[in-house]
Amino acid sequence: MDPGNGSDVLPEELTASVESFFDTAPPLQGSSLISHKLQAFIDRNSKSSEGGGPVRVVCVTSGGTTVPLEQRCVRYIDNFSSGHRGAASTEYFVKAGYAVIFLHRRGSCQPYCRYLPEDSFLDFFELGEDSSIQVCQSHSTIVKKAIGDYQNAVERGQLLKLPFTTIFEYLQVLRMVAISMRPLGSYGMFYLAAAVSDFYVPWESMAKHKIQSSSGPLDMRLSQVPKMLSMLRKEWAPMAFCISFKLETDGNILLQKADMAMKKYHMHVVVANLLATYKREVIVVTDNGCINVCSQDEYSDVEEEMIKILVDRHSKYLE
Ligand code: PMT
């Protein structure tokens, strides 16, 4: 097995912009608790699995990052993503025996909760005669399954949830996760489904207080967020199996962009998807060619087949 992460030298310009991003980011709240949780999770899963071999651990990133416009944030730029892809994929990775670090946007879709109501949570419950709270009969099967699957994953130590909101939090936690997964070597996997901001306002040049509309039209220059995929591959976790996503709106450039990401960032797999069809169709791009994956019908998840393919690719990588 070859980490295949290309030349070991990162372009100086990239290293400098990454350093500057982290040096100027606001301090991560609760970083020692995150670090403690991560260490405990990795320690637990570094030991042998029931079958004897080491446990595979995947970091699933999910949901969109925000870009604050003010330090005491009233307004922000958001990224499109419900977190459904990451939540569904987490369930299938757990089913395949992986331990999952679910790095997700606060308030986005959660594993095992995808079928619970979005609008009125209260529709699921009713009051019993003795004023006890019960799940309505019509929803009980779905809720029982969700609770059972979720508790199994947690009790077996297969699920660690870490939240983020801003681009600063996301990249700081991603770096912590990646560095703590380094000892797992090639048993570690990254599945980067989060929609990550490409532009941001550096903390030191950000307005401290609410921007006043009385000052007239807003003229703002956004800096480019350094692409962290190269850092992940070359510095943070060079042996891990890395899958990134490519979302486009124009089908004519999708595969070309996915191919470019494979080569430029030395990804092992890129999952290409189009905004118009991403819920039911993806293309798994590997160095051996492309595999089209479509959901069978409106009740099945495209993630089920996709995760089988990715687990199989990871097994081959481990060989
Ligand atoms: O959550 P859902 O509503 O179910 O939607 C799922 C999805 C469409 C968001 C998902 O399938 C998807 O395509 N996610 C990636 C979207 C995206 O941000 O694509 P991109 O082309 O901008 O970025 C490509 C890759 O680079 C991503 O894996 C991203 O993690 C990474 N990236 C992006 C920007 C940046 N500054 N640094 C990065 O590392």
From TrEMBL:
Any one GO molecular-function label of the UniProt entry: catalytic activity
Gene3D superfamilies per record: CoaB-like (3.40.50.10300)
Superkingdom classification of source: Eukaryota
Gene Ontology process terms (BP): coenzyme A biosynthetic process
SUPFAM superfamilies named in the record: CoaB-like (SSF102645)
Domain DNA/pantothenate metabolism flavoprotein C-terminal: 58-109, 176-297
Entry's family note: Belongs to the PPC synthetase family.
Protein name: DNA/pantothenate metabolism flavoprotein C-terminal domain-containing protein
